Amino acid sequence: MTEKTKLISPRLPRGFEDRTPGDIAAVGRMIDTIRKVYERYGFDPVETPLFEFTETLGKFLPDTDRPNAGVFSLQDDDEQWMSLRYDLTAPLARFFAENFETLPKPYRSYRQGYVFRNEKPGPGRFRQFMQFDADTVGAPGPEADAEMCMMMADVMDALGLGGKYVVRVNNRKVLDGVLEAAGVSSVEQKLTVLRAVDKLDKFGPEGVKLLLGAGRKDESGDFTKGAGLSDAQAAVVLDYIGGKPPAGNDGVTELEAMQTLFDAAGYGPEKIKIDPSVVRGLEYYTGPVFEIELTFKVQNEKGQDVVFGSVGGGGRYDGLVSRFRREPVPATGFSIGVSRLANALKLTGNLGSDEPVGPVVVLVMDKDQTARYQAMVSELRQAGIRAEMFLGSTKNFGKQVAYADKRNAPAVIIEGSQEREGGILQVKDLVAGKQAAQAITDNAEWKAARPGQFEIKREDLVAAIQKLLSEQ
């Protein structure tokens, strides 16, 4: 490389993140816990590709000649547009429709993987993030929706979040009935009313009343324009959030049926509760909607105590699969935001952040003896023990041990000329050495004590390391 050659700056694109071994291991344990609950409920895994044809992802994409707003898209050789999936549900709908004749119905599946949003990134808002979904396609009754809610409660309990969450449930049919009774017809006004209802926990009934009317000014003086409802119209909505659902509404009947199932299965209101303030997807959901809210408090960027909030949600979406087939296909599902849930578990001490145990490292004391060292590594690996021979260029003993420390190795194996002649090995227990280091402050005393180091016969290598690892 010449002096004039410009070096590339190693930069991570905004909205993306690198994951370290500790992060991967911790999230892997969390995902494994979720998976076991899903499988206990009879759900099976399926995996769809990261790319789908853009038309497959549906009406929730912008209708433009180059559909790159909100999603990441590219044109194939045959000029067909493909996009990175932005959720795991639209690909499932395509998969179910494409394999309709062979799949069991109802079809119960779970999917886990990355999704992509071509949006402006911000704090806690990424362009690539992981979701973990479960869906039942082909079951029309509220029993399937109730099962989703109970499964989510079981997931939270399995993750150690018992008493720190609630699964909140509502029904889009109820919300639609309230809007109709209030005489709200325009899509824009419906959205504004529903956003106001969604703020019930944050602002209380009085705050919602302001947002249903002219608008609300917050403590900073910022003004949020309201829905512009009359007092009579607003009264209908306020009666609803006060506990008076519309009479003769199918959504109310479905919620009552779900509540009966919750009661029968022993899921009390501390785990699952009907909540009129739950609002999700105006054009997406067609029946019951639900979300998991974590109820413990955290501090926001302003240092204020706030409830952690939602880590997942879902509901019934009977219209999505029907985009691919003429007959109606009912469906219900749930999506967990993996990164957000992992952050919650970290805050509650339920994630576990320990670095995974590294490999046993066989040090290279004499370069002309690498075949002997490689034989040791192979013996350990064949016994199911993570192991590696030091492959760096340094001959320095201390630097090789420092490398093993950085790898979080449980031990190093030492064979110099004296050990080789005596048919022995030195094993340095790095875990015990670190513990002893906290008690020994004098360097000379440290060298004399050689804490954690012991001698074994060469033929006892595997048995000695197995014993050491079990004790650690």
UniProtKB/TrEMBL annotation:
The cross-references to CDD domains, in alphabetical order and at most eight, read: HisRS-like_core, HisRS_anticodon
One Gene Ontology term of the biological-process aspect is: histidyl-tRNA aminoacylation
- Extract the Pfam families matched here: HGTP_anticodon, tRNA-synt_His
Any one GO molecular-function label of the UniProt entry? histidine-tRNA ligase activity
Where in or outside the cell it occurs: the entry states:
Cytoplasm
Catalysis performed (reactions): tRNA(His) + L-histidine + ATP = L-histidyl-tRNA(His) + AMP + diphosphate + H(+)
Q: Which GO terms describe its cellular component?
A: cytoplasm
Q: Where is the Aminoacyl-transfer RNA synthetases class-II family profile domain?
A: 29-359
Q: Which UniProt keywords apply?
A: Aminoacyl-tRNA synthetase, ATP-binding, Cytoplasm, Ligase, Nucleotide-binding, Protein biosynthesis
- Give the EC number(s) under which this enzyme is classified: 6.1.1.21
Per UniProt, L-histidine binds at 87-89, 117, 131, 135, 280, 284-285
Its main subcellular localisation, reduced to a broad class, is: cytoplasm
Q: How does it assemble?
A: Homodimer.
UniProt lists the family membership as follows: Belongs to the class-II aminoacyl-tRNA synthetase family.
**Protein name (database record):** Histidine--tRNA ligase
Organism encoding this protein = Devosia crocina
